[in-house]
């Protein structure tokens, strides 16, 4: 089993709501987790649209887990 990503699974979000608890065995995307229902949360710093944040209006055109133009969106966690 690969190392489990812990930073994105810590709760709560910084100054935000509690994260949905994901047991270690459900961390890989290949494992079905029918009860998974994460809360939507967008940090105020991201909502302010800094230069490094993706534009929500373009989300459907972004290529995740791939090289997207000059931006490398490949996951570092698998």
What does this structure look like?
The protein has 78 residues and is largely without helices or strands. The protein has 1 helix and 2 strands. It has one helix at 44-47, and strands spanning 67-68, 71-72. The chain has a two-stranded antiparallel ribbon. The longest helix is centred in the middle third of the chain and has 4 residues, at 44-47. It is globular, with a radius of gyration of 15 Å. The N and C termini lie close together (12 Å). 1% of the residues are buried. The model has no long low-confidence stretch (mean pLDDT 85).
Major sheet description:
2 strands, antiparallel
Distance linking N and C termini:
12 Å
Average of per-residue pLDDT values = 85
> If strands are numbered along the chain, what order do they take across the biggest sheet?
1-2
> Percentage of helical residues?
under 10%
Question: What share of the residues does DSSP label as strand, in percent?
Answer: 5-15%
Low-confidence stretches: none
Tell me, briefly, the overall form. globular
Class from helix and strand fractions: little secondary structure
Strand/helix succession: HEE
Query: Helix segment count?
Result: 1
Radius of gyration: 15 Å
Count of DSSP strands: 2
Topology:
Elements: H1 44-47, E1 67-68, E2 71-72
Antiparallel strand pairs: 1-2
What's a quick, concise take on this entry?
Helix content is 5%, strand content 5%. With 78 residues, it is mostly loops. It starts with 43 loop residues before the first helix and ends in a 6-residue tail after the last strand.
């Amino acid at each position: 089993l690969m190392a489990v990503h812990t930073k994105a699974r810590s709760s709560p979000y910084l100054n935000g709501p509690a994260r949905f608890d994901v047991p270690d065995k459900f961390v890989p995307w290949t494992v079905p987790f029918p009860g998974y229902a994460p809360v939507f949360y967008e940090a105020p710093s991201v909502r302010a649209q800094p230069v490094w944040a993706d534009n929500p209006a373009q989300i459907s055109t972004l290529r995740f887990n791939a090289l997207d133009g000059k931006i490398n969106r490949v996951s570092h966690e698998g």
